[in-house]
Specification:
This protein is α+β, with helices and mostly antiparallel strands. The protein has helices at about 100-115, 115-125, 140-145, 155, 180-195, 215-230, 235-245, 270-275, 305-320, 320-350, 355-365, 380-410, 415-425, 460-470, 500-505; strands at about 5-15, 30-45, 55-60, 70-75, 80-85, 125-135, 245-250, 285, 295-300, 430-435, 445-450, 480, 490-495. Bound molecules: adenosine-5'-triphosphate and (3R)-3-hydroxy-3-methyl-5-(phosphonooxy)pentanoic acid. Pathway: Isoprenoid biosynthesis; isopentenyl diphosphate biosynthesis via mevalonate pathway; isopentenyl diphosphate from (R)-mevalonate: step 2/3.
């Protein structure tokens, strides 16, 4: 086999902007995570024993029981059409995977339009072998920890092997809300576009410009496939984070995808619609990152929330009580924008005087936020930094209050009392800057931002203190996730042997 193509894409956390981001008038504060999905595409160079055997694509997700999907590909040069047929799944004791099937079908069809039949057939050779793997964080690891007699703590999570086997079928796994399907579709579509030479390798190089055309094409195609597979057009912040990394996201007008959303084969050619040169793609991605020497902490709260029903109810209430809702949307939007600008201001302060900033982070990590402004005699350059950290805390609390108000008015438990209790306990610990319920809220998860000073004994780290709150919490079943903010931005190419555990997964036939 020739060298495999590997592309990874990160998961996401919507720190602020839930529900508002569905409306193009508002934006969302999106953080991409260090936890990633990986797609490895290998070309099958060897001809099948039967010379007339059709081109076959095999897709495997070895973390799951019976997760092998086989497809045959027919490329019709006359019709400019590619047909990707799943094999009868019963024969392989696997159920269909709509997300994978649509990603293959639409990416191959786009490739035929973009590079022509001959080039596509060359790249497909005698077939493709595709392996998909998601970092452990995308799926609840409670059972794996329990099986090893380990507690649900961050140090215990670090002892699990990478891409740990879940021991269940894909349909039965407990997801953690990091956006597995968006990261999966993004890594699969991007790896295929690269492998089939539709986009150049530079598009996904770790240092490529975020707005590179190849990356934008991959974004548009991944949004399309994800909407089609989910059967709805959401805001798309998850796919955008998977491509472009942490950002302030403003959605695209769903009208761009309307001509392609009907069931069955697309009625129109794909390329003119998904091409980045189509001005109807009016999403906006502004740069964003969390401040230096802070750490994003995430926990999966084992209760489960029906996000689509939350969205339906909130939007229904917004229509019915539009005056009150619009006032709430505007107030929340002002808070969200001020929060994102305040977080960005901290990065600026670090760039201006990293010594003062580092001292402040170390100092704040020993104090509860109520004490941050209570001490006189602090040098002015440090006091200025403390004030911005304190503003960040106040803003996260104000956003939470508004999200609770939204939930009460719409009759949806966006930050239910059990989560309020847990979050209050966490944000009152020393060194905790703020937190909230990510995305649509509910009982699923919490996020926190904590000071992360360097050269601190582990027991003095705010993350350790939060970990203790989580492991002792009895009101809800709280299980930490290992993810932090992605240092590597959005989608990127990887060397197979540099991702621990990935080669072994690919080689295990
Ligand atoms: N490892 C995987 N291999 C193959 N397909 C996967 C894998 N993980 C997820 N999928 C696909 O994604 C689908 C789940 O998508 P869904 O939109 O329900 O999840 P999600 O909202 O992204 O979940 P979460 O945000 O909690 O991670 C699965 O049914 C499957 O088709
Ligand atoms: C409610 C909503 O704004 C965010 C949902 O986020 P999450 O899937 O709960 O992380 C929906 C959307 O943006 O598509």
């Amino acid at each position: 086999m020739s060298a495999p193509t590997v592309v990874s894409a990160p998961g996401k956390v919507l720190v602020a902007g839930g529900y508002l981001v569905l409306d193009p008038a508002y934006s969302g504060v999106v953080v991409s995570t260090s936890s990633r999905f990986y797609t490895v595409v290998s070309t099958v160079d060897r001809p099948a024993p039967d010379a007339h055997a059709p081109i076959q694509i095999r897709v495997r997700s070895p973390q799951f029981v019976d997760a092998v999907w086989l497809y045959t590909v027919a490329v019709d040069p006359a019709l400019n059409a590619v047909v990707v047929d799943p094999h009868a799944h019963k024969a392989h004791s696997t159920s269909a995977n709509k997300f994978v099937h649509l990603a293959l079908q639409r990416t191959l069809a786009l490739a035929q339009e973009a590079v022509g039949t001959g080039s596509l057939q060359n790249s497909l050779a005698h077939g493709l072998d595709i392996t998909i793997a998601g970092d452990n964080d995308f799926y609840s690891q409670r059972a794996q920890l329990a099986a090893r007699g380990l507690p649900a703590t961050l140090p215990a999570l670090a002892q699990l092997p990478p891409f740990a086997s879940t021991g269940v079928r894909l349909a039965d796994v407990h997801k953690t809300g990091l956006g597995s399907s968006a990261a999966l579709i993004t890594s699969l579509v991007s790896a295929l576009l690269l492998h089939l030479r539709v986009v150049p390798p530079a598009s996904f190089a770790p240092d490529a410009a975020p707005a590179a055309d190849g990356r934008a094409l991959s974004h548009n195609l991944a949004q399309y496939v994800h909407c089609l597979a989910q059967g709805k057009v959401g805001s798309g912040f998850d796919v955008s984070a998977a491509l472009f990394g942490s950002q302030l996201y403003t959605r695209f007008d769903p009208a761009v995808l309307e001509p392609l959303m009907a069931d069955g084969a697309p009625a129109a050619p794909l390329l003119p619609i998904v091409s980045p040169s189509n001005p109807a793609w009016n999403y906006h991605v502004a740069p964003f990152k969390l401040p230096p020497l802070t750490r994003l902490m995430l926990a999966d709260v084992d209760a489960g929330t029906d996000t689509p029903s939350f969205v339906g109810k909130v939007l229904k209430w917004r229509k019915e009580d539009s005056e009150r809702a619009n006032a709430l949307w505007d107030a929340l939007n002002r808070l969200n924008n001020t929060l994102s600008q305040t977080l960005l201001k901290l990065s600026e302060l670090y760039a201006q005087d990293d010594a003062a900033y580092k001292k402040v982070v170390k100092y704040l990590s020993t104090l509860q936020s109520v004490q941050w402004l209570a001490h006189p005699g602090i040098p002015p350059e440090e006091q200025a930094v403390i004030e911005v950290f304190s503003d960040t805390h106040d803003l996260t609390q104000a956003v939470r209050a508004k999200m609770r108000e939204m939930g009460e008015l719409a009759g949806v438990p966006i930050e239910p009392p059990e989560q309020t209790e847990l979050l209050n306990a966490c944000v009152s610990r020393a060194g905790v800057i703020g937190g909230g319920v990510p995305g649509a809220g509910g009982y699923d998860a919490v996020w926190l931002l904590v000071c992360d000073p360097t050269l601190c004994p582990p027991e003095e780290l705010p993350s350790t203190r939060v970990g203790l709150v989580w492991s002792k919490w009895t009101g809800l079943d709280v299980s930490p996730l290992a993810a932090q903010e992605s240092a590597a931005g959005g989608a990127r190419t990887e060397a197979l042997d540099e991702v621990p555990g990935l080669r072994a997964l690919v080689d295990a036939a």
